[in-house]
Amino acid sequence: MAYAIDLAGKTALVTGVANKRSLAWAVAKLLHRAGARLAFTSRRLAEDEKAKAKLEALVKEVDGLLLPCDVRDEKQIARVFQALDGEFGRLDMLVHSVAYAPPEALRGRFVDTSKEAFQTALEVSAYSLIALARGALPLMERAGGGSLIAMSYLAAERAVPTYNVMGTAKAALEQIVRQLAFELGPQNVRVNAVSAGPVPTLAARGVPGFTHILEVYEKRAPLRRTVTHEEVARAALFLLSDLASGITGEVLYVDGGFHVTAF
Ligand SMILES: NC(=O)c1ccc[n+]([C@@H]2O[C@H](COP(=O)([O-])OP(=O)(O)OC[C@H]3O[C@@H](n4cnc5c(N)ncnc54)[C@H](O)[C@@H]3O)[C@@H](O)[C@H]2O)c1
C-alpha cells in the first residue's frame, strides 16, 4: 500500500522495539517507508548478546541507529539525546512504546498490588514519557516543532480483568499525554496517544488470558475482530505526521471500535 506521507528530511526516535512483532517495529517500518531517518533505543542491548545481534540485524533493515536505554535510568536517557544531537542535530518525532509491570502484579488480585510493583509499572510505563519528552524538547525546538506518540490501552479508563496495575499506568500515561500537550503546544510540539486493541506481541503474551481477550474482540467489536500491527502503525504514522498538525492531547482508538460498545 502506498502512503501520501512524505517524511524525507525528518528524524524519529523509536523506543520499545523488542523484536519484529513489537508495535514499535510496525511504526518504524512505516516511518522508514515514508523517508524518515530513524534511531532506536532498547534496554536489552547490555543484558543479552543474542537479543542484541537480532536487534542490530532488524535495525539495519531500516538503516537505523541503535542506542542502549533503560528508561528508568536518567543518565542513559541523557546519553541518547546527546547521541541524537550529534547524529541528527534535530528531532521531529518520538515514539513511546515501552511498558512493564512485574508479572506477579498481573497474576494476583489488584488489591494485593505491592508498592514496589506499582512504582515499577508507573515508572517504566508512564513516567518515562515525561523523561523522554524533556530530553527530546531542545532537539524538537531546533526542528521548529515535533510530534510524540505513546501507546495506550482501554484499561486506562475501564476495569479490565488481569490488567491490574498496568491499567493504572495507562491512565497516568494518558493524563501525561494531555498535560504535555498543554505545556508543549506553544513550542509546536504535539503529544498524542494511540489506544490499540489487543495485538500479539511479547508484552501482550505476558497478560494472563490474552487469548480470551482476543476472542472477546472477535465477538463484540463492531468490526468483529481485533486490529493488525499495521493498522495500529498507520494511525501512529498519521499522528506523527503533518496530516495531524491540528491534533494534540488526543487518544486515538485503533481497536475495531471495541471501546464504543456496552455489550
Ligand atoms: N500488544 C498489545 O495488545 C497492546 C495493546 C495496547 C497497547 N500496547 C502498548 O504498546 C506498547 C508496546 O508494547 P508491545 O505490545 O509492542 O510489546 P513489546 O514487548 O514488543 O514492547 C514492549 C517494549 O517495552 C520495553 N521495555 C520494558 N521495560 C523497559 C525499560 N525499563 N526500559 C526500556 N524499555 C523497556 C521492552 O524491551 C519492549 O521493547 C506498550 O506500551 C504496550 O502497553 C500494546
Description:
The chain has a single domain (11-256), classed as NAD(P)-binding Rossmann-like Domain (Rossmann fold, 3-Layer(aba) Sandwich). It contains nine helices and seven strands; from the N terminus they run βαβαβαβααβαβαααβ. It has helices at 23-33, 49-60, 74-87, 103-107, 115-142, 164-184, 202-205, 210-220, 229-240, and strands spanning 11-15, 37-42, 65-68, 93-96, 146-152, 189-196, 251-254. A seven-stranded parallel β-sheet has the order 3-2-1-4-5-6-7, with helices on both faces. Strand 2, helix 2 and strand 3 form a beta-alpha-beta unit. The longest helix has 28 residues, at 115-142. The chain starts with 10 loop residues before the first strand and ends in a 9-residue tail after the last strand. The structure holds nicotinamide-adenine-dinucleotide. Residues 16-18, 22-24, 43-44, 70-72, 97-100, 124, 151-153, 196, 198-199, 201-204 line the site of nicotinamide-adenine-dinucleotide.
Name the CATH superfamily classification.
Answer: NAD(P)-binding Rossmann-like Domain
- Biggest sheet, open or closed, and with what strands and sense? 7 strands, parallel
Shape, principal axes of CA atoms: globular
Bound molecules: nicotinamide-adenine-dinucleotide
Query: What is the name of the CATH architecture?
Result: 3-Layer(aba) Sandwich
Helix/strand structural class: alpha/beta
Percent range for β-strand residues: 5-15%
Number of strands: 7
Q: Report the total helices.
A: 9
Quickly count the domains: 1
Under CATH, the topology can be stated as: Rossmann fold
State the share of residues found in helices, binned by percent.
40-55%
Distance between the termini: 34 Å
- For the residues shown, what is the average pLDDT? 96
What order do the helices and strands follow? EHEHEHEHHEHEHHHE
Order of adjacent strands in the largest pleated sheet = 3-2-1-4-5-6-7
Please give the CATH class: Alpha Beta
